[in-house]
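Bumping with the actual sequence this time:
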Amino acid sequence: MKPSLTEWDRILPEKAYSPEEPDETVVDFAGSLRRSNKMRVLDLACGGGRHAVYMSEKGVEVTAVDISWAGLKMTRGRLNNEDLTAGLVRSVMNTLPFDDSVFDAAICTRAIHHQRLKAIQETLFEMKRVLRKDGMVLIDFLSKRTHSYGKGVEIENGTFIETEGHEKGLMHHFTDEDELQRLFEGFRILTIDLHETKVEGKLRSRLTVKALKP
């Protein structure tokens, strides 16, 4: 039976969407996990696998999840190239196929915003559910300060569908710190950091949340 494909199966094989170097926030987060002996980690929406590879190299037990067959195939290939192992699971973000309280930590980068607000809330609930007590999360979100905020068709407050360009048809939810405070009411927020860069004169802005399950 031929697997059903998603837009990410088309996009992820492109180099711009599957970098090999880990995000600096994940590098810092992995260091804090090792110091805290939190070694079983969920990499949610793993994409091309850069963070699954990085954390596996550091001795972390990683389970990498993505909706895209292409992303999982790339992750497996990168792991094999480095003689590393990780669990690979195909799943949507907001309904995870894991028991309660099985992970020490979870990361989700450059991904959770590709949903409506309700699905984002469900994803956070699921991440909290699968974490053990004092489990840590690292999640980044698109900031309303980013250059593409307000472009496309608005389908709900803060959520837009691209109508042109390479991400035509993709959904993006933009947020701010006030909304994040509400979204993370079930967690203990440690930090909310703003990260901004300019690419070809256009501002790219994201908010990164580090939090604990109480």
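The tokens above came from a reply further down the thread. The helical segments are 7-11, 24-35, 50-57, 69-81, 117-130, 177-183.
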